[in-house]
């Protein structure tokens, strides 16, 4: 780590070149064009307090390079990312590269594999990206990722098998920072108030979340000043959808179109065509569709919260702009299920040699609930030991009344939906009182965070470890900002 003063150039090199915040090769209309230009000139991940525009409202927050989302990083599988974090925040911070099979010391996991970077200091992240796909990056300290500290990481396939004309990156978020206090204020409110019983969803098995957010965003924009993705009639478009939210699952549909899902958390799957899909925090889905003539709503309803994020897909200049309050029938039609998804044969994992169970639990306490893994909290975490080269089956048993999007660092796993297999993922939704089987191939030694991506649950204790061999001597624990 170095002192941040005297940095001559604030540029982020991705294999020698930083790619602008864009949806290349497609053109993006409106305010997004100027945002892309700023990102291309400012490559370093410069974390600092700033103000950002959500559309018609400007708020104070923390962000990378004064952008929301932060600058999109584009690279190619097998290349090296070199990203200098400059911390001008009033608190320590890190960058986690969500979904990337990475060396532990580059994972941005405070208390596990690196110390959080103090205010006024820098940290150089240098790593090779082994797999193509849709990923993202975010702070992994306290509630910081519920501010503006996140951005897309797109890893292109040098042998891309999909045929498409345009590509769009869609980053979904729930937002309250600078509107209803800060995310830390929200955590304190959750710890001291009764749960909002109206936050429910049958698709999520009951309780949908803890917080009803004032805004839900697509690429940092509210419904009153939405993002516009511009294409042409008949074009084949690829959409990369990322849920960077802290407490909200989204139900996604493109009005007037069906969508063919092609990737789950970066990995290809056998194509499956649906009308809508539910995406939990930390998940990513890619889909392709042939665009009709007109202007269409890209709708992401906040599941169980009565809010929505909204963007416009426009292929005809004079077409009437859809309303964010309009109905999108596709949202109530065929929804994607994990059982519909199947990894490509090359990505199937070998059979597991043993099975372990991880029980997701809850202990009710005054001053805040305690969300646990095998009865343990993050300050004294459960540790699953693995040996390099083995494949284990982890049975995720949700013994609570809420769903949990469970994320494993440093690995992908195969969700075993049947004897035939299932999709490759790094984040999986486990519904209340249900079990999900995931197979993990131990091919990346280290001490790896394994946690719920509901940020409040993570902060209230639902954090464990997947570790190789004997545990290290240092004590694990989360760093809080």
Give a verbal description of the structure.
With 481 residues, this protein is mainly β. Strands 1, 2, 3, 4, 6 and 8 form a 6-stranded mixed sheet that branches. The protein has a 6-stranded mixed sheet with strand order 14-11-16-21-18-19, with no helix packed on it. A hairpin with an 8-residue loop joins strand 29 and strand 30. The radius of gyration is 21 Å and the shape is globular. The two termini are 19 Å apart.
Total number of strands:
34
Q: Give average pLDDT, whole number.
A: 89
Helix content: under 10%
Summed up, the helix count is: 3
Summary tags:
globular, disordered N terminus, mainly beta, single chain, 481 residues, disordered C terminus
Please render the helix and strand layout as text:
Layout: E1 2-3, E2 13-14, H1 31-41, E3 45-53, E4 58-64, E5 70-76, E6 80-87, E7 96-98, E8 121-128, E9 133-138, E10 150-156, E11 166-175, H2 183-192, E12 200-201, E13 206-207, E14 215-218, E15 227-230, E16 236-243, E17 250-254, E18 259-264, E19 267-274, E20 277-279, E21 284-290, E22 295-302, E23 307-314, E24 354-363, E25 370-373, E26 383-386, E27 391-398, E28 404-408, E29 413-415, E30 424-425, E31 427-430, E32 435-441, E33 447-452, H3 455-459, E34 463-468
Parallel strand pairs: 3-6, 5-10, 11-16, 15-23, 24-27, 26-34
Antiparallel strand pairs: 1-8, 2-6, 3-4, 6-8, 7-9, 9-10, 11-14, 12-13, 16-21, 17-20, 17-22, 18-19, 18-21, 22-23, 24-25, 27-32, 28-31, 28-33, 29-30, 29-32, 33-34
């Amino acid at each position: 780590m170095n002192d941040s003063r005297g940095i001559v150039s604030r540029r982020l090199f991705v294999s020698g070149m930083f790619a602008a915040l864009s949806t290349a090769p497609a053109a993006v209309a409106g305010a997004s064009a100027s945002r892309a230009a700023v990102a291309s000139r400012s490559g370093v991940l410069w974390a600092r307090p700033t103000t950002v525009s959500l559309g018609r409202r400007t708020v104070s927050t923390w962000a990378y390079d004064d952008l929301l989302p932060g600058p999109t990083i584009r690279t190619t599988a097998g290349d090296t990312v070199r990203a200098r974090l400059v911390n001008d925040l009033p608190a320590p911070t890190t960058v986690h590269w969500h979904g990337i099979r990475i060396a532990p010391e580059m994972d941005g996991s405070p208390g596990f594999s690196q110390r959080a970077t103090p205010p006024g200091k820098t940290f150089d992240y240098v790593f090779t990206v082994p797999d193509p796909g849709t990923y993202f990056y975010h702070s992994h300290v306290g509630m910081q990722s519920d501010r503006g500290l996140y951005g897309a990481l797109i890893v292109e396939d040098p042998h891309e098998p999909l045929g498409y004309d345009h590509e769009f990156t869609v980053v979904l978020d729930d937002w309250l920072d600078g509107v209803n206090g800060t995310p830390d204020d929200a955590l304190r409110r959750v710890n001291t108030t009764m749960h909002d019983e109206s936050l429910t969803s049958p698709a999520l098995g009951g309780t949908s979340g803890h917080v009803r957010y004032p805004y839900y965003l697509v690429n940092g924009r509210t419904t009153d000043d939405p993002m516009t993705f511009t294409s042409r009639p008949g074009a084949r478009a690829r959409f990369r959808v990322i849920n960077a939210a802290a407490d909200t699952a989204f139900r996604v549909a493109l009005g007037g179109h069906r969508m063919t899902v092609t990737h789950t958390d970066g990995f290809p799957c056998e194509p499956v065509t649906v009308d809508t899909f539910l995406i939990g925090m930390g998940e990513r889905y890619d889909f392709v569709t042939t665009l009709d003539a007109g202007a269409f709503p890209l709708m992401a309803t906040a599941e169980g919260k009565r809010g929505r994020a909204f963007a416009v897909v426009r292929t005809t200049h004079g077409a009437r702009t859809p309303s964010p309050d309009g109905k999108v029938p596709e949202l109530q039609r065929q929804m994607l299920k994990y059982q519909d998804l199947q990894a490509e044969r090359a990505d199937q994992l070998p059979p597991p040699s043993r099975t372990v169970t991880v029980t997701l639990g809850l202990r009710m306490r005054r001053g805040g609930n305690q969300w646990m893994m095998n009865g343990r909290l993050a300050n004294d975490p459960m540790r699953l030991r693995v040996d390099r080269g083995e494949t284990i089956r982890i049975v995720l048993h949700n013994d609570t009344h809420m769903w949990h999007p469970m994320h494993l660092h440093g690995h992908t796993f195969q969700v075993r939906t049947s004897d035939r297999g299932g999709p490759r993922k790094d984040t999986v939704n486990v519904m209340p009182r249900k079990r999900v089987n995931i197979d993990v191939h131990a091919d990346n030694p280290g001490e790896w965070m394994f946690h719920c991506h509901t940020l409040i649950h993570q902060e209230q204790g639902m954090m464990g470890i997947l570790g190789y061999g004997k545990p290290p001597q240092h004590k694990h624990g989360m760093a809080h900002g």
